[in-house]
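Pair request: fold both.
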Amino acid sequence: MIAFSNILGDVRRIFIKFALAVIMAVAASFLLAPYWQKSYAVIHTVLEISCIIISVSSFFVVWCVSEIRKTNLILGFGFLAVAIFDILHTFFWQGLGLFPGSYYDLSAKYWLAGRFAEALFLILSTTSIVKLSIHRWLGLALTIIASSTVAFDFYYTPGIFPVLITPEGVKPLKVAIEYIIISMFILFLFRVQKGHFHEDIITKEYLILATIITIPAELCFTIFTTITDFYNVLGHILKISYYFFFLKAVVAAFIIFPYKKLQISEDRFHKAFHMNPSMMMITTPDGKVVDVNECYAKLVGISRQEIIRQSFFEDNNEKVNWGIRQDSLVGEKLHNDILNCQTVSGESREIMVSTDTILIDNTQFVLVVATDITDKTRLEKEMARYDCLNVVGEIAAGIGHEVRNPMTTVRGYLQIFQRREQFYEYHEQINTMIEELDRANSIITEFLSLAKDKAVEMKRGNLMNVIRSLLPLLKADALRLGHEIYTDINYIPDTEFNENEIRQILLNLVRNAFEAMSESGEVMIHTSYSEGSILLSIRDNGSGIPPEVVRKLGTPFVTTKENGTGLGLPVCYRIAERHNAKIDLVTGPKGTTFKLIFYLA
């Protein structure tokens, strides 16, 4: 129903334009008729030259566009042939009398040849012949040769062709040929409506309108009796009208419609490129940046304008000169390669990169597509660490107490033996055994802290109070090790936490910071509140943590200390998990910062 209403609307619109064109042509003919009778030679020549200019313009539009893209040259060659025959028709027209060798109906023959060529080329444009790959210059030569051959035959062998018009009027044969031409135009209309003309709807509308106007125009030339007849004037005015609509159809088909398609295509590319959530960049093969989307510019930390036209490499050492440090992306195809890059702010990011060679206007470029997988990788590592902690926690919950009980028994007997005189000579060895048992017991205590289902009592309080209560102990440790500890305590709201566990995590992180620094180091404890979260950070000015160690941080039993157990940080991560908190790490040559972020419900 919707399709039918659309067709009905198209028909109504074409009919209204057709009616207006005919009415205007009739009105113009009435106004022009008195002047036509007095100066018909001049007016006829002006009207025909107008048609010739329109035909030649239509040809040149098609011809020029064909230099840029493959197009339907049949219509262009048809307009060229029509222009040639219209020139000859005007030159030999009996009312002009410029050529002494002309005879009365030669002009009529050229007229009919032009109309026939017009209808024929229109029909051919709806057939498969348009798909043939004919060189444009060959087609031009064939059109000129064919038109010239017909023109020479009409002029030099007049006896072969019957007379079409005499001073007394139009011959029946001319009328019959005009009706044949009209039927050809109707055939073209039928093929257009059946979808054999593969152009846009606007072009089809103009072609249909122009073709419909040709029918009354041709009819006028079947019924006029003299040169000064009103129908002769009306026919020429209608001829200009349909030539004009043919030109509009050509402009729409070969200029406006392709331009709109190009605009739509460019808009689609622009949106797909610049609004793409993945990072995209186009470079020349030698690494000069041609374009880059906002996502890439945002990652790098500088504007698109600063990136574009810069060299992708810096000093030919596989370094991007606008801040990213990564492997070469130009000269070889990459497919989902994982590369490390560094933004201008110094942040290290992990990206997955693919590259491919593309042709734009027959010029080779390199398309770079990258996805920032830093957060995804971090989450995967976090999940792997938590899985490991869960396994260790389950083991701790299952066997921790069972191991501690016999150890307590052994320690008790060793203390009894230590007091007896007969074991006095073994006093030092027994003391060492008790110390090792105590050390093993402390490890088991930390081990039990990894238990996921460990019951902890949460109380409402303020983390600032915990920091202040621990500060004397931490300052004593710092003084003993030759370090300084400072605080930057800003307001933070009360929250739910377990004081013993917060003390444990704070002690672990600060003591790790002390051990990471050489003599005369500085540790800063900082608190702040922002956007529904509390930040507790511990920063040292040590030499940073190596990347290979960072990847393993939080994994149980992984330690760089000579006497370390590798359970301190895993315990911190487990405590953070129980408090709905997250531990982030920022490390570099100038130090390391552990950030403990508590999310408020």
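--- second member of the pair ---
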Amino acid sequence: MRGATGGTNNIINGNTIPNAFNNTLFASIAVGANQDKDYRIENLGISNLTLTGVPRVQISGTHAADFTVFTQPIATITSGNNSVFVIRFSPSAGGVRNATVTIINNDSDEAPYTFAIQGGGLAPDINIVGNGNQVVSGSTIPDLNNHTNFGNANVTAGTKLRSFFIINLGGDILDITGVTISGTNAADFTITGMPSATVGLNNSTTLEITFDPSALGLREALVTITNNVPGKSPYTFAISGVGIDFDECVIGGSSIFKTQTFEGAVGTNVLGYTVATALGANPPVITGGTAFGGSRTVVSNKFLNNNSLQVTGPYPSTFDPKAKVIVTFDVVDTSIYQDVSFNVNIGAYSTNGTQGLDVSDWVTIFISGDGGLTWSREAIVKGNSNAIWNVFGGGTTFTNPFKGLDIPYEIQPTASSVGNGTRLLTLTNLPQVAQLQVKIELDVDRNDEIWVIDNVQLRGRLPVPKTWNGVAWSGDGLPPTSVEKAIFAGNYNTSTHGNVTACECQINSPRIVTITDGNYIQSAGRIVNNGTLNVQNNGSLVQLDDYAVNTGNINLTRTANIRRLDYVYWSSPVASFPVLNISTGTPASNVFKWLPTIAGNFGNWTTTNEIMERGKGYIVRGPSSFTNTIQPFNAAFVGVPNNGIFTPTIERGGYTGGGYPSPTNPAITVTANDDNFNLLGNPYPSAIRALDFLTENTNIEGSVRIWTHGLLPDVAFNDPFTIISDTIIVRMITLYTTEQEQSVVR
């Protein structure tokens, strides 16, 4: 396979680097224009070459629609002959346009035959990235992952700064003519860093927005960016944040949480890796030794401690394409860290003092936030006309933020220099994600040139901790404060050791933490349970941050003193809990939920076996094994504790007329208000303040009534709205019984 006219060099099967010399690289042309390139399929074998694909030449990939096979080759090419096909490139947008050509055939070792093609559109383009993730124009739901959701900020003493990269991957200058913030709470968001008015090709600029809430709760606004990109002006996206009045964790200093020194260390903080080679590269070696790095005449160490990862080219002279070694590091969860950064020491050495690393010799750093599904080139360290430098000292340092744009920083020393290259490279502001991954590719051709990498680190900052060892708290021995993280590295019982108030909580395996009757643990932020967390009856697990995401199941017990025919109102404090698991000794026919309306009118009970919805109430009869004697019934809820703001659907019927006889008991009059009832429940693993509930929900009656019956049920009453005379009014919302049987509210 080769270009037919123009660039007539060979096209290697599997080639991923388009090249003008073999027609795989098209020109950059205006959007709407087109360019044709032709290709020759040659049969160098002794048998017929058959192209079996339908169509025979296929195009796929990101911008496949911009490339069309204008002329297809013939199906059968006899020995010694060839067939030509033509591809037309017509860019639909600005910037680099990529696709892959696939030719399915009967060749024994080159089927299918694939190669990359590329062209460029001469028009600007605009894309926005936050925290390494795309911010889509027109998006209306802010996201923590791309920083359009700013998270929490204290209304009296807190702000939150977010940076967004505005990228031009197009083929012309991007003009930014205005950036504004509008919407309900626009005054709470301020542009504290304006982007540049113009952005060059394959370049970016930074927009900085600061969130300073003026009130508690959700604060929302809209960002509008006017520009010169057809179809993308204005570029808009929603932003939000939450004003809070509680303490968040104080964050400690930066520390190493994953490292690779190539010294053979093992442990949970070691950053593992795998290696691969391409284009004839020698496998890397883990060794020490010396070579020329800080001088042309005196050798120096090629390591920091005892060993480093070293890559030497396979060829005795300069060769293109360069041989490549790929070092892929293990996936790391960075979601619990703040200010995540990546460090690596880099050295460039010569075995003879004459040679060194050249402009085409690269060390490329890739970052992925999704476990390697997609990669962004973040930095390229180059040589320059036989430049050399040590890995352990001298040289220069390079520090810049992660962008996630696949537009790498490019760093190179002065030509033929000694000790002028980038010895320490740092990328800051890495994504806080569950699957961060780093990859380093080292390109070098000559066997007298050496790339060296050493001391690879991931660093981050964690909340200041207080650790319980089973006997005492760390540090000053006092329990954590509201700005410290509680780590349970030993068993803990609140009756013995006291209540706990912390900014976050973590339970290590296999430790057991028990919250006893009348006690609590308050965690402003998330709860990470790798052990066992038991919440006994009337114990409370309290959280303040509505956006904290919990991990690990809890075991929560709630007790009701009932008879067999008593019904108890329940709601689930944990996620994904089956309603039938509340009482496995109760027939499924005696487990109900409330339907607010029947045929558009009053409500009634219906049996259910569903997963309990958060904030929804259910009613369950006592176990069949119970008698008419009151005894304790324990419901055991197991699951991830609920947290956040829940907005269950509230319904009512449309009847507004006068009273009418109940269809189930004509002796009872049903009014228009009898279709207003909804059965809700506390969705949290703690008590809630009834008065606060009423204050936040002003469109309800304004009282809660809790009761049990003093007499056993009477079959004379058969109506879903029956209220027995021994109701005890406590406070707030009215709750009603089913038929003759009364209820205990939990």
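Observation on the second member. The radius of gyration is 34 Å.
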